[in-house]
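anyone seen this seq b4? input:
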Amino acid sequence: MVRRVPLEKIRNIGIMAHIDAGKTTTTERILYYTGVSYKIGEVHDGAAVMDWMPQEQERGITITSAATTCAWKEHRINLIDTPGHIDFSIEVERSLRVLDGAIAVFCAVGGVEPQSESVWRQADRYHVPRIAFVNKMDRVGADFFRVVSEIEKRLDAHPVAIQIPLGSSENFEGVIDLIGMKAIIYDETTLGAKFHEVEIPESYRERAESYREKMLEEIAGHDETLLEKYLEGEEITETEIRRALRKATLQIELVPVLCGAAFKNKGIQPLLDAVVDYLPSPKDIPAIRGIDPETGKEEAREVSEDAPLCALAFKITNDPYVGHLTYIRVYSGMIEAGSYVYNVAKQKRERVGRLFRMHANKQERIDAVFAGDIAAVVGFQKTTTGDTLSDKRHPILLEQMVFPDPVISIAIEPKTQADQDRLSNALARLAL
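predicted toks r here
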């Protein structure tokens, strides 16, 4: 079985934000422009692909994290859309545990809000590199520069604007790319699918040059070669800027900041470019570390399909047609449909019945999943969230997932004794 997509061209990312910052709307545009969806699904219409549960469609909110896969410029992007409500923060926690990078979405009016701070801390805990997207630039009161300042002060981060908005509120036309020094204006008749790269308008040129200088100064401070050229007044190429910014982003020293208006279909394609350019591939992530359960010694597994299997079950759902769906992140080795894996925590063998690549609540059947990828398994009987899966001859136990303590307890009972078994089964499924 041969890998189809090289490791360096895979991105495992999540989208996180405070409620109503526009996470799911941004995700829906990503799916549209990458060709996964042929129609834009709107959250307010209950038609969003990623909000597939009836409760989500009814309320217009994300309750459970949903995974999908899309392609952009010869890269495979495994994308998880997470909830914004603090009630469902566990969904963010277990997603960030297995992701390599993240897009933090901020409202251009609301800025950094309480849940923005919570998810940022969660990303810090798992050392997840991230980029920021200031959304809703078309709204009255939108202020990109204030939001960038709030990211720095309230999140103790080091944001670097690589775009500035071309107008704001009802006059928002597009973005100014500070690296390429060009303006990007979107064609509204094609739902933003087409855009034009033009010269920066004269009225914006002075501001663009000023912010480009700030950007170069910030990036050069994290790259000695670039700093030397900057201080000598030498010309710095776009390639050099992107290379230095990628390095600083992966080391979580800088956070590239972009802007747009997802609902008005503006700013999404450059955001996808930034995912490819600045967020890590599985090869950029340090080797996963765990404990050999037999010796108690720490072990590391490099990201390679030639290494012994190491995978983590990070989420379990119930599908009405296929039953238990166990979402896994494979760190090393590979898993084939029909094979067996070893659940280290339960000390049980589990059979891999079928393998799927998920698209929200839809499944695409696959034959194998390789190191660095995310997939869903049907057939596991004993596996629960947080369990490590490995080769029985080379067991490794990864760090357990951390779940917040409950803040409320309730007792429930069936209406009739005849419903006792069904209630017990339902509660058991929820506990997975």
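The chain has ten helices and 24 strands. The two ends are 31 Å apart (CA to CA). kinda curious what u guys think
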